[in-house]
């Protein structure tokens, strides 16, 4: 064996010995880390499967509750929805709560329905769009009950923006008409007509409202002058 071969062999043995020492020292950590990756991946897939399963169960329960309602079994539907509200998965508890409010409204329990919608509207844990929708639904019922002042108070701030601003404007407009506050109602009607983003049917209704309000203002002015 030449001197260079001997040196290379010794160097190789030293490297192997050093690697063995390094493995003896750090090998268990490497194995443990690898196991964590494998277990973490398995746990993630298991959790995803669990979420999918729970969501499917809640979805089936919601569909069954709607079927009960459609067949005229409102009380049973509400009972099923109450269960889903407390033990459902994902967004189904919220859907259940909103549906319970709708069921109670249809059954004539309007005060309970308003309370449920208002609870959602005032719950900061929900998305703003969900809160606004619940507030709109509550105020539709409130307007039917003659609570025009409450509608004006709750929805005036919602007329300037948000997904339901057009509906909010119409409800506030109708509330002012309910109070015969024509001077306050007219600017809202004109605003609805002028807004290029106003839905066509709502604009047509607003034009009718505006014409009616102007005629009432003229009549009231003549009566006041006499």
TrEMBL record:
Keywords associated with the record: Cell membrane, Chaperone, Membrane, Transmembrane, Transmembrane helix
Instruction: Tell me the compartments it is located in.
Output: Cell membrane; Membrane
Which InterPro entries is this protein grouped with? SecYEG/CpoB_TPR (IPR018704), YfgM (IPR026039)
Listed GO cellular component terms?
Answer: plasma membrane
Q: Which residues form the Ancillary SecYEG translocon subunit/Cell division coordinator CpoB TPR domain?
A: 20-171
Give the membrane topology, semicolon-separated if more than one: Single-pass membrane protein
Q: Name one Pfam family in it.
A: TPR_21
Query: Transmembrane region positions?
Result: 26-47
Question: From the UniProt record, which GO molecular function terms apply?
Answer: protein-containing complex binding
For the keyword Chaperone, the answer is yes
- What is the name attached to this protein's record? Ancillary SecYEG translocon subunit/Cell division coordinator CpoB TPR domain-containing protein
